[in-house]
Design goal:
The complex is a heterodimer of chains A (about 375) and B (about 650). Chain A has about 375 residues and is mainly alpha-helical. In chain A, about 70% of the residues lie in helices and about 5% in strands. Chain B has 26 helices and 23 strands. The chains are: A mainly alpha (about 375), B alpha+beta (about 650).
Chain lengths: ~375, ~650
């Protein structure tokens, strides 16, 4: 099964971009956690282990032919749905949300894995779904049903960030396959009332507050709006060149919330300034662009769909996280891939990167 | 793996990748533009916000200067007072915090919330005062529980203390928290919310000297408010002390002379304009204004018909009554209409046109010359003189004595009094002056108004033959090291062109008022000192109505002006006893006590009791009636002790 050509076709660009981001991320976590009193292994070291583990995952996943995923996709989907239901029934709660599942010695977050599984499932579905001139509403019914079940389950946890991301990834893939204009029109007419219904019935007060605070951060300076304001102060006070590594007052004096995880980017922005941010954004942009490039070069419909799915996953994470940090989007707990501290995010991201690598390595097959 | 399954049509999709790439690029560009906006364009704003975040200003209030009497005895000083402050950026849930404070030390959550709302407008690192003047017990409880009260700090602030009790409250004034209006006005640029400022009296007019300069520490703190380092530190500068011209002993005796009566008195050094005593009765407790005023006491102050909060010596305007005859007499002498021999026959009434003007003495004074007219305060003499003079000449003489003008004393809100003349009447009422209206003016009634301060200035001017000194209350301003920063020298603001002879005639008559038989001011007589003075009664209601006389608020005011010693004047006194009836009896008695206090203070001191104030307080406490809670045996002991003393 292991073809010699696989090694000669390793996508080094992808690997270098990922490694670069991972290393900057660790350096940044080192600074962000410098003011913390740490018991046990320091965060940057743990993040280093996670990054190493992530690369191991990339090697594992890329070694497997991604077409295996096509065969087991519906199984994966079924298992994940079961896990999500289990989470709701017997999950482990933290901070008002039930997201975690204890699997013996390891805690896991099925909703995170759902991001990858929805990509695989949609890839499988759309790879055999040939429509000319875009999908009609009827064509969409089944894929939307596939999406709705996990999205609602995740939202119930409640985990607005992950649910949004699952939906955004799915919608990106649907647009990639193509829609009829009439479908878009009908869809808009259905979505707007649905959003209104969702707002008034499904969202938790804290989620509504976050949206409202985002729309008007002055609304509660010390509530959740506080995070946005402090983060904007951190970013804005960075100026052209930043305050210097481990010299950001906002981060070092701990005015930033979650500064090693969701708000890691504001630590970076404060200490490296506009120039640093520009470099980082360019690297992220290159990563997403490279993922799309893999999709473009792939002659296999399933592979191309997977690559677009993974690219959109990366893209939406990057945009929502940075957008949140600079006050463009509401505060939802979306990490910045390879940059925010955390194993769960690392696993999801690296699974995606592994899939991209797997596709990129096998382009010779077609 | 079947190959045909893997290879499917992808050309349609490939075109979309290009489109997606452009969309992705556009969104990333948006992020970059936003970063540019925050980090480059608005950098200055956010940089200062981050400075505000990490910097904390801890104000250290300057100690206010003391107020001393002319002998250096402290009248107002400071004691430490504790207030509860909170730093808003550290408070996540203020309502919970207020609930805890209410439970711990019984503060009112509603009031705390109100102060919080008000304080939120200031810089976020500046502490908001939630409660002022908390007790030491409360301080202790809060300090023990600081860990459960995030953002709470105890601030020590000096507050006013009055070692001599409520002495001269109108003169000294009180301090209290700066108001919103004051804070926004130009004069208080350097002040902050919660600062204490002088609101009346010396505290107000010498605010700039007394206040000092607040200091503070600029600290770097982390997000939890923990202090990391001190960035800058400025020490507060204690305010300068103000030494008054007041003699607190004379002041105290003067206040005591009023007893429960309402009124005002001013004693002034004839040869310098220094005010020696400045009384407005009844007084109030100025210390209550710095703390939270108990509502029942406040209500009591407002409802007391004797108006304790009003500074009557400065702002009380009274018809001068017969004391004004001094001016009418001088006007007549100067105009050449009378001399010391001019005689008038007083029958108890004077007919003018259709109306009859009565003398206070129904039987009349019969033949009356200038000296007798002042000594026995004959009204008819002045009705006739007034008629001859006309109102404008009387008014001109009154104005020479600065009546109708502020004396320029160093207190704010001084009243000017009123001198009516024909021009004034035309302006005020649009009608001409009727000569019948001149007659009451000649005896100090009618529209005439004067403050006790103006009255003392008039009698002092008479005493020193026409020299008008500017009355002043402050001798000097001294800094913390005791060095004199500013000294106030006597200031002559006018010299009257009145012949010495005419002054002598009037003064001689004023001497007879107090010292000769038939004089109305015999009550003011001192045995070893020659006192000269003039009584006055100012009508509160126009017609003398016996029913109304009985009611307090319709009773006449009693006035007395005096100077002493007659041969070489040193002190001038004016006294107004509100609703005190005839000036001769009540006001002259008060004036006598003031004069006595002054001349006693000049005698070499006998060292009997160094703290007379304390002794008096003891006497009051020692009365059995004041000890209802004490056990029977203790009460008996007190009684036995008292009888034993007899």
């Amino acid at each position: 099964m292991i073809d010699r050509r696989l090694f000669t076709n390793i996508d080094w660009t992808l690997m270098i971009l990922v490694l670069l981001l991972g290393c900057i991320g660790i350096a940044n976590i080192y600074s962000a956690t410098a003011p913390y009193r740490i018991i046990g292994a320091p965060y940057y070291l743990k993040q280093f282990y996670w990054l190493a583990f992530g690369f191991l995952l990339v090697i594992l996943v890329s070694a497997i032919d991604y077409h295996l995923l096509e065969d087991i996709s519906y199984w994966l989907y079924g298992i994940l749905i079961l896990l999500l239901v289990t989470v709701l029934v017997a999950g482990y709660s933290s901070m008002g949300a039930t997201r975690w599942l204890h699997l013996g010695f390891i805690k896991m977050q099925p909703s995170e894995l759902m991001k990858i599984v929805i990509i695989v499932t949609y890839g499988r579905f759309f790879s055999r779904f040939e429509v000319s001139g875009g999908m009609t509403v009827v064509n969409l019914l089944f894929p939307l049903a596939i999406l709705a079940v996990p999205a609602i389950l995740v939202m119930k946890q409640p985990d607005l960030g992950t649910a949004t991301l699952i939906i955004l990834i799915a919608v990106s893939m649907i647009f990639y396959v193509g829609l009829k204009w009439s479908t878009i029109l009908i869809f808009t007419m259905v979505t707007i009332p649905a959003i209104w219904y969702g707002w008034s019935n499904l969202l938790h007060p804290y989620q509504k507050n976050r949206v409202l605070d985002f729309l008007n951060p002055e609304r509660s300076k010390l509530g959740s709006g506080y995070h946005v304001i402090q983060s904007k102060i951190a970013v804005g006070s960075g100026g052209w060149f930043g305050k210097g590594y481990i010299k950001g007052t906002q981060s070092q004096l701990r005015f930033l919330p979650e500064q090693h995880t969701d708000f890691a980017f504001s630590v970076f922005a404060e200490e490296w300034g506009f120039i640093g941010c520009l470099m980082l954004v360019i690297i992220y942009f290159s990563l997403v662009l490279w993922g799309l490039n893999i999709a473009r070069r792939c002659n296999d419909r399933f592979g191309s769909l997977l690559a677009v799915g993974v690219s959109s996953m990366l893209f939406w994470h990057i945009i929502i996280n940075t957008g949140m940090v600079i006050g463009l989007f509401p505060v939802v707990g979306v990490p910045l891939p390879l940059f925010s501290y955390g194993g769960t995010s690392m696993i999801t991201t690296m699974l995606g990167i592994g899939i991209l690598q797997s596709i990129s390595m096998r382009k010779f097959m077609f | 793996m079947s190959r045909e399954r893997l290879v499917r049509e992808t050309t349609l999709l490939k075109g979309k990748v290009i489109l997606f790439s452009f969309l992705v690029a556009a969104v990333f560009l948006l992020i970059v533009l936003r970063l540019w906006h925050l980090q480059v364009i608005r950098n200055d704003d956010y940089r200062s916000m981050s400075e505000n975040n990490r910097l904390r200003f801890v104000p250290v209030a300057a100690s206010r200067g003391n107020i001393l009497d002319k002998n250096g005895i402290v009248m107002v000083r400071n004691r430490p007072s504790f207030s509860l402050a909170v730093v808003q950026q550290e408070v996540k849930d203020e309502e919970e915090l207020f609930r805890r404070l209410a439970a711990m030390i019984g503060l009112d959550p509603v009031e705390m919330a109100a102060r919080w709302e008000k304080g939120k407008k200031q810089a976020r690192y500046y502490p908001i005062i939630l409660a002022s003047n908390i007790t030491r017990d409360q301080v202790e409880i809060v300090e023990e529980n600081l860990i459960r009260l995030p953002g709470i700090e105890i601030e020590m602030k000096p507050v006013r203390e009055y070692p001599q009790g409520a002495l001269a409250p109108h003169l000294l004034g009180y301090i209290s928290e700066i108001s919103d209006n004051e804070l926004n006005s130009d004069g208080f640029r350097d002040y902050n919310l919660g600062d204490y400022i002088g609101k009346s009296g010396i505290e107000k007019s010498y605010e700039k000297e007394l206040h000092g300069r607040d200091g503070g520490k600029r600290l770097e703190v982390d997000a939890h408010g923990r202090v990391l380092r001190t960035i800058s530190d400025s020490y507060p500068e204690t305010g300068n002390s103000v030494q008054l011209t007041i003699d607190s002993e004379i002041q105290q005796k003067s206040e005591k002379a009023f007893g429960e009566q309402a009124g005002a008195a001013v004693a002034m050094d004839v040869n310098s304009g220094e005010i020696l005593a400045f009384v407005s009765s009844p007084g109030f407790d100025p210390s209550l204004f710095s703390a939270k005023m108990p509502p029942d006491i406040w209500k009591g102050y407002l409802e007391d018909k004797r108006r304790p909060l009003e500074n009557k010596a400065l702002a009380g305007q009274y018809p001068p009554g017969s004391t004004f005859k001094i001016i009418t007499a001088l006007a007549g002498l100067e105009a050449g209409l009378i001399d010391k021999h001019t005689e008038v026959n007083c029958t108890g009434a004077y007919k003018f046109g259709n109306s009859t003007f009565r003398c206070w003495k129904k039987k009349g004074h019969q033949t009356t010359n200038l000296k007798k007219s002042l000594r026995e305060s004959c009204d008819v003499y002045y009705y006739q003189l007034g008629e001859k003079l006309g109102v404008d000449r009387i008014a001109a003489m009154a104005r020479k004595f600065m009546l109708g003008n502020a004396t320029g004393i160093d207190l704010l809100n001084e009243k000017k009094g009123l001198v009516p003349d024909s021009e004034w009447k035309k302006k005020r009422f649009g009608v001409r002056w009727y000569s019948g209206e001149t007659l009451p003016v000649a005896i100090g009634q009618g529209y005439l108004l004067a403050t006790p301060l103006q009255l003392v200035s008039i009698i002092s001017t008479v005493a020193n033959d026409g020299l008008i000194y500017k009355p002043h209350l402050v001798k000097k301003v001294i800094d913390i090291e005791g060095k004199s920063v500013k000294e106030f020298k006597p200031e002559i603001i006018g010299k009257l062109e009145i012949s010495r002879e005419n002054f002598r005639l009037v003064k001689e008559a004023l001497f007879s008022v107090v010292n000769e038989s038939g004089g109305t001011g015999a009550n003011a007589r001192l045995y070893e000192i020659k006192v000269a003075g003039k009584t006055g009664t100012s009508q509160v209601v126009k017609m003398r109505d016996s029913n109304r006389q009985t009611q307090y608020r319709f009773r006449d005011h009693a006035l007395f002006v005096a100077f002493a010693p007659y041969d070489k004047p040193e002190i001038a006194v004016s006294v107004v006893v509100e609703h005190g009836e005839h000036g001769g009896s009540v006001a002259a008695l008060v004036a006598r006590n003031i004069l006595r206090a002054y001349f006693d203070s000049k005698k070499p001191k006998m060292k009997t009791s160094p703290k007379p104030v304390d002794n008096e307080t003891f006497d009051e406490v020692g009365q059995p009636d004041d000890l209802p809670a004490a056990p029977e045996s203790a009460r008996e002991q007190v009684i036995n002790k008292e009888t034993g003393n007899d």
